[in-house]
Amino acid sequence: MMDQAEKLRKIIDNLKLRQSSNQANLLNTARKKTAKVITVTSGKGGVGKTNVTINLAIALSEMGLRVIILDADFGLANIDVLFGIIPKYTLVDVIHNEKNILEVLSDGPKNIKFVSGGSGVEELVKLEKPQLERFVENIALLDKLADIILIDTGAGLSDNVMSFVMAADEVLLVTTPEPTSITDAYALIKMVSNRNKDKKIKVVVNRADSSNEANDILNKLSIVAEKFLTLKLHPLGFILNDDAVIKAVKMQQPFYLSFPKSQASKHIRDISGRLADIKKEGTVPETPGIRGFI
To answer: Which of 17, 41, 120, 272, by CA, is between 20 and 30 Å from 63?
Structure first.
């Protein structure tokens, strides 16, 4: 017959196993809730970065992923304009501590959500440390609400832009075939490489005249980055010139919805498919997600 001491030991062992299992389940749940943060940026302005962001978000959402866009193009925020939506609250309200970031989330098409930058967001650079910490804590609240968070930054190499670039899990760099755009894109790649050679940089060529032109740019950027920076770039695809894009902008609607059969929409589907595969196959628990900003 089992004595009392042995019974007690078995009870304790069972409790430990149960506790360990519960902790593992909690850990796995927390990991599953970690959003992948992708910063969408460019070396120079006028390359169609924001348009790529919103249409990519819609395509990803159609694949069943929860997507949030954070408009971090300080001073020039226009996600809401391209959506044709006037948000009630913006990041300015968060900065002034009048709302938390969950209260300024706006509903976009196809179940995506976005946080508008509004106007006057350049005030962010003037925040005192306690205000900045509170702002970062607010951003962290988005982590459990999305599978992918797309951060649309301003163009260039400012401290604000680089902060979002370096904190993200992945960087989506948008360039065009223009020589100045390619040069500025390489400058951004170089700056990222100097800070962290392990940062994943994925490249999209926008407004190319042909697939040959786009692939030539992707190949040349990859070769130069590997040769001079020992950095491996990840070409993600291209979007060819398409009148549907211009028409949709004038309509204040995403071209992916207004012209779903257009060439540009097909290219967005191709790019989003590759990103979705990365999301499904990637080891999300090992990435910092939005916690990278803390």
So the answer is: 41
* Neighbouring-strand partners of residue 107: 113
Asked if residue 181 lies in contact with residue 48, where contact means CB atoms within 8 angstroms, the answer is no
CA distance 264 to 272: 12
- 84 CB neighbour count, 10 Å cutoff: 11
Domain boundaries, the chain: 34-293
Q: What digits encode the pLDDT tens for the residues 234-263? A: 999 999 999 999 999 999 999 999 999 999
Name the pTM for this structure. 0.83
CATH code matching the domain that covers 34-293, chosen among 3.30.565.10, 3.40.50.300, 3.40.47.40, 3.90.226.10: 3.40.50.300
Residue type, 215: N
- Please report which helix (H) or strand (E) contains residue 263, including its range: helix 263-281
